[in-house]
Design goal:
CATH class of the largest domain: Mainly Beta
Strand order of the largest sheet: 4-1-7-8-14
Number of strands: 14
Number of domains: 2
Mean pLDDT: 82
Low-confidence stretches: 1-17, 145-149
Distance between the termini: 24 Å
Length: about 230
């Protein structure tokens, strides 16, 4: 009944599905039982209760838009927890405060051309400092678009713009690279120009635009102070 009243007070908005599942663990310095604590998504009203070990999860959330509401019958407190793009939460409730550790999922770009994506961290392990040299060292020659099979160069793109070559592009300026095989339909449609495939580079500047929080720490520690 208490959780139902809280949901009514918050206002249940129309459910808008998204793909993210958040997980977390709740602990308290005061004994509690299942049902004493409710975790609510403020935007949709979707809610759950931690199990006996304090574990909880909520599907179909949008970490970039949603806010968690923690209702505790143990303390009689309501805590508002901005999600800030995070997908994992460790919540510790004490007498007059709530400590939260939030963990953000790493940014994982998706392929737009059915190619293979290589993050800068993976390319740096080759020991090369230039982007093209790192790609050639990382990707087996039978799978990468290069000049190994004749004189044709692959088609190079940097941040969506076609360029003549990338041999002088420092790897330090790159966020990730997508390597598209010549057998890809998009390359085949280009005829001779696509005979060696495509290499698409996304720089860190573009990366920041796609994922504004990319340079922030993946883990946050903060607390909500409450009145006694």
């Amino acid at each position: 009944m208490k959780s139902t009243a809280i949901l009514i007070a918050l206002g249940i908005l129309p459910f808008l599905a998204s793909a993210e599942t958040i997980t977390g663990k709740y602990t308290s310095d005061t004994p509690y039982k299942k049902g004493d604590v409710t975790i609510i998504i403020n935007r949709t009203g979707k809610n759950t209760q931690p199990d006996k070990k304090g574990r909880f999860s909520l599907k179909n959330t949008d970490p970039n838009r949603d806010t968690l509401v923690l209702y505790s019958a143990v303390s009689g407190k309501i805590s508002i927890i901005p999600m800030k793009g995070c997908v994992e939460f460790i919540i510790k409730e004490e007498k007059n405060r709530v400590d939260i550790i939030q963990k953000r999922a790493p940014f994982e770009p998706t392929s737009e051309h059915s190619g293979q994506i290589y993050m800068k961290e993976a390319l740096e392990k080759t020991g090369e400092s230039m982007t093209l040299a790192a790609i050639n060292a990382k990707v087996p020659r039978s799978n990468v678009a290069t000049t190994f099979k004749g004189s044709l160069e692959p088609i190079y793109f940097v941040d969506g713009l076609e360029v003549g070559e990338i041999s002088t592009l420092p790897l330090s300026e790159v966020a990730y690279v997508e390597v598209v095989k010549p057998s890809n339909p998009e390359c085949a449609a280009l005829g001779a120009r696509g005979a060696n495939g495509m290499i698409l580079v996304t720089t860190e500047t573009r990366y920041r635009m796609q994922n504004p929080h990319w340079s922030e720490p993946k883990e946050y520690h903060w607390e909500i102070k409450q009145d006694n």
